[in-house]
Design a protein that fits this description.
The protein has 4 helices and 15 strands. By secondary structure, the chain is mainly beta.
């Protein structure tokens, strides 16, 4: 279930004329749990400063959808983004409690986006489990063939996805078939996204997964991964511009951190010529 925090800020994105392309800008970032929990030497101020930077980067990106990974108050309790300044947005939390640990993911949607249903949970049955959040939403500008969109934020396990598909299908229904968007830390290069997509979302496979470049992790002398992607199966969609941001606020000693990603999609608007199958 989602939670809305803060007072409304700004107006909804303007809808384009019938048949116009629909541009959707996103921002997503795995800040890592050590910063959120002030663990393993991360500064006590790390979460507050990283949370504020999350909002600053999202606003600079003019994002309409954001996804936070491991930005949390407790291991399985996503932090409320409005407390860092993201006011007027609708947040959807994904909580995954697992023993004494857990994982957290959250989505948030800008004013003008309508959240019709939402939920979240765990992606595995064992200690490799990670969190996801899912929402069925109606965008400000209609997308061809998609009265609503199924949007997923995920932190994929390092192995495979064995749970969560029933939740996604219950929330999104037929929107999984050709009206889905997913973003986050997939723990695999872009070539591995399709398999994880089928295990969680189903429907048609994603047409592209961007970016496909190194995003993991600081310190780079100890970690390597091409992990953070935005993908969609909307017919006729194409990737827009993306930015892989530098590591942020390392003076807070976050212990481990992904690069944040701003990425956009260009979707066919309602009334556009039908996309080729």
């Amino acid at each position: 279930p989602g939670a809305e925090g803060g007072s409304p800020g700004g107006g909804p994105p303007a809808a384009g004329p019938p048949g116009a392309e629909v541009h959707i800008s996103t921002f997503f970032w795995n800040v890592h749990w050590e910063c959120s929990m002030a663990a393993r030497g991360a500064h006590r101020s790390c979460k507050q400063h990283i949370g504020r930077r999350f909002v600053e980067l999202a606003e600079e990106s003019q994002a309409e959808i954001v996804a936070s990974i491991e930005l949390s108050d407790r291991m399985s309790d996503p932090a409320a983004l409005w407390r860092f300044g993201l006011r007027g947005w609708r947040q959807v939390d994904g909580r995954c409690a697992s023993g004494f640990n857990g994982d957290a993911a959250a989505l948030a949607f800008a004013p003008g986006w309508a959240v019709l249903d939402s939920d979240g949970g765990c992606l595995r049955h064992d200690s490799d489990t990670r969190a996801f959040a899912v929402a069925l939403v109606r965008p400000p500008s209609p997308v061809q063939g998609c009265p609503s969109l199924c949007v997923v934020a995920l932190h994929a396990p390092h192995s495979s996805i064995t749970k969560g598909a029933d939740v996604v299908h219950r929330v999104c229904g037929a929107a999984v078939e050709r009206c889905a968007i997913a973003m986050g830390d997939w723990n695999t290069p872009a070539a591995g996204v399709a398999g994880l997509w089928q295990a969680l979302i189903g429907g048609a496979g994603p047409s592209s997964s961007e970016p496909d470049e190194r995003t993991c992790c600081w310190p780079e002398s100890e970690h390597y991964g091409v992990f953070d992607h935005l993908a969609t199966n909307v017919a006729g969609a194409r990737p827009g511009a993306h930015t892989v941001h530098p590591y942020q606020l390392l003076e807070e000693n976050p212990v481990k951190q992904h690069r944040a990603v701003s990425a956009s999609l260009v979707l066919p608007g309602e009334g556009a010529a039908p996309a080729a199958a």
